[in-house]
């Protein structure tokens, strides 16, 4: 199934995509389960599928304002330099463990919303990625068990303000300007995806393909990343892992290709969906 978070008539909620629109699930699966993160934490996505079965859409998508898939994750962890093409273009050495940094939830926008080029920089870069949404949390999760902890997947654009990212060896400043990242449109459950490593991934800027790869090209696989992260921190239901971007980023082109006001950027990941955002100036 595909689940979304949204605002309708000033109220936040969540629902499932069906033919013709959305079935509203807010408060309908159990008392107090008013968000997608709460439904994941209560292990109710299966019950949601049962509830939705045979029901017709209650709302057209046009009636709703989408939110990031999980608007309020406790953790957003991002993997840097996780495709060989990207490692080569950045001229970084091979490493034995995933390179990780954090994003804050308030830096993200939804599918169809605008990403904001900050006034402080002209170096806003695209990074199309697959996001993994954690279902069952845990600590010290074995690679062999890691996929059992995944609730679903969604496209992610880890928009990067490169000059701020390069101020020091730490990426965080360049990854956390308000509204520079995007996450959506929907959480797609693993049963719809099938073999996640077979998914194609591409980023399209103003109709031109600027990044293209397969999830099979990841240096550190999704199970490896989950296992490594949980070796030092506990993952909770609704936490998000952005798994890294392929080669072709704007910073490494000659001349550099930065996103600018009026641009439209798409992250296409096969069955996981397509994330579309327009760029505006701060």
TrEMBL record:
It comes from the Bacteria. GO terms for biological process: carboxylic acid metabolic process. Residues 75-280 form the Fumarylacetoacetase-like C-terminal domain. Transmembrane segments: none annotated. Coiled coil: none annotated. The keyword Metal-binding applies. Keywords: Hydrolase, Metal-binding. InterPro entries: FAH (IPR051121), Fumarylacetoacetase-like_C (IPR011234), Fumarylacetoacetase_C_sf (IPR036663). The keyword Glycoprotein does not apply. Pfam families: FAA_hydrolase. One of its GO terms (molecular function) is metal ion binding. Belongs to the FAH family. PANTHER family: FUMARYLACETOACETATE HYDROLASE DOMAIN-CONTAINING PROTEIN 2A (PTHR42796:SF4), FUMARYLACETOACETATE HYDROLASE DOMAIN-CONTAINING PROTEIN 2A-RELATED (PTHR42796). This is Fumarylacetoacetate hydrolase family protein. It comes from Acuticoccus mangrovi. The lineage of its organism: Bacteria, Pseudomonadati, Pseudomonadota, Alphaproteobacteria, Hyphomicrobiales.
């Amino acid at each position: 199934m595909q689940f979304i978070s949204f605002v309708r008539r000033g109220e936040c909620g969540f629902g499932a995509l069906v033919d013709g629109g959305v079935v509203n699930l807010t408060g309908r699966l159990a008392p107090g389960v008013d968000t997608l993160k709460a439904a994941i934490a209560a292990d109710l996505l299966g019950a949601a599928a049962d509830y939705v079965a045979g029901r017709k859409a209650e709302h057209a998508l046009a009636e709703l304002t989408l939110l990031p898939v999980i608007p309020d994750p406790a953790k957003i962890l991002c993997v840097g330099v996780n495709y060989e093409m990207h490692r080569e273009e950045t001229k970084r050495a091979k490493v034995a463990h995933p390179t990780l940094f954090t994003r804050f939830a308030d830096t993200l926008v939804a599918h169809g919303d605008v990403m904001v080029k900050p006034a402080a920089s002209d170096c806003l870069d695209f990074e199309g990625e697959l996001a993994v949404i954690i279902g069952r949390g845990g600590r010290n999760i074995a690679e062999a068990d890691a996929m059992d902890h995944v609730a679903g997947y969604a496209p992610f654009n880890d928009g990067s303000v490169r000059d701020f990212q390069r101020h020091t060896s730490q990426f965080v400043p360049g990854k956390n300007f308000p509204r520079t990242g995007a996450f959506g449109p929907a959480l797609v459950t693993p049963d719809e995806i099938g073999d996640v490593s077979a998914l194609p991934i591409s980023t399209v800027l103003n109709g031109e393909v600027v990044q293209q790869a397969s999830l099979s090209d990841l240096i550190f696989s999704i199970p490896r990343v989950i296992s490594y992260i949980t070796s030092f921190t506990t993952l909770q239901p609704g936490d998000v892992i952005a798994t890294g971007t392929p080669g072709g980023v704007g910073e490494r082109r000659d001349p550099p290709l930065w996103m600018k006001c009026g641009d439209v950027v798409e992250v296409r990941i096969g069955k996981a969906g397509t994330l579309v955002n327009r760029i505006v100036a701060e």
